[in-house]
Amino acid sequence: MHATEGSLLERRLILLTGAAGRIGSAFRQAHGARYLFRLADLKTDGLDDTPGDGHEVIRLDVADAAACAEACVGIDTVVHLAADPSPEAEWEGSLLANNIRGVVNVFRAASEAGCRRVVFASSVHAVGGLQDEAPIPDNAAPRPTNLYGASKAFGEAVAATYAAQGLSGIAIRIGAYDAPWFREQGDAVAAMAYVSPRDLNDLLVRCIETEDIPYAVVAGISDNARKRFTLEHTRGLLGYAPRDDGFAVLGLDP
Amino acid sequence: MHATEGSLLERRLILLTGAAGRIGSAFRQAHGARYLFRLADLKTDGLDDTPGDGHEVIRLDVADAAACAEACVGIDTVVHLAADPSPEAEWEGSLLANNIRGVVNVFRAASEAGCRRVVFASSVHAVGGLQDEAPIPDNAAPRPTNLYGASKAFGEAVAATYAAQGLSGIAIRIGAYDAPWFREQGDAVAAMAYVSPRDLNDLLVRCIETEDIPYAVVAGISDNARKRFTLEHTRGLLGYAPRDDGFAVLGLDP
Q: A194 catalytic, yes or no?
């Protein structure tokens, strides 16, 4: 057995929403032996390729409160990635259902099912309006410039709401996740917010496993030569030690 | 003519949503000569008693985006008070329509109509989860304990979003507004967040008239002997000088 693979009973049961997306796919590919996943997405194609045995695959629309309630039964930690990920997303057409109602449905369901924790994919867009010459505190007050960012700030507030009722909640302000666009069009501003798949995977594990955190907002970026966030709070709380650098990835002089 | 009364052309045109509520009624009664109001609420009974000439009365459901667009035409400043004001409000039944969709509809309509500013009634509940032994910064990062407070934190984020597009936005975290319940059941915790009608009326005038504020979150409490907020930021930005004290109102020893 691989060093990180436990028996079915020893592995934490994780509900991974948005499991078919880029971040969700990288995470389940990396940690299918470490966790027992309930893999949830609107489209479930390809979820069967997750390494490790015992995973479940379910179709889940997070705008459906009853489906969220069912999906949370028996779960230890929800990793809630499902959302419209576009900063240009339409409000009535998408954000309202997928990001606003979705995040309330998921936290409420997790709370009512007695889950231990929700790890919520917030975004650097929650603070997109803060000046970007110097690194900002990881958990600075929100200052979005678009309704996508406002929807992520709302998710952070929903995490606080359910934390007050005993459900541990950690929001990660995820930066510019490695992607073809980043390598083709990334500039110094993007490099400051870069996060590599292996650094974000490591951060997600720490967010799942670190005990005694009722509520936190942390920053999900790599060890970029110049940084969008200071990372002080995130390192101190979780022992996060990122290894990659967006400026090196792009071959840019910091 | 009264010193504060200008001609119709000199008076700012203010859209007051929630004009029939307690805060809206105290404000229009106090400043019907200073401003030219478009008075808007779900029920318009009693709005005709506003002092001063030239006011308009309209029925407005802020969940109706087209109605909000119409209500903002020609307006200088929107004072957006309309919302479900209950910390126990239902999510699907009320907050989603009145507080979430409502606040986006109003800011978007104000932005598209070219209004100068929106003054938004946020709440002390946006930060209800922060410890209350010592005063907290007026604009501390949100930490609600209920979905009502989360809806107000969202409104603050929406204000930031439209500020990035050039619409000035000021959110007031309104405390415990003077009311029979306060005088009957108020305790030291309520006294720390107390705000009198005359102090809040004065703060609203300052939020409407102070120039050159792209975006701000300020605190709406009186000069309580012990305070929920420091008031430093609010005093510095707006020259706010509250006169009342919740401990004196209740006859409590601070």
A: no
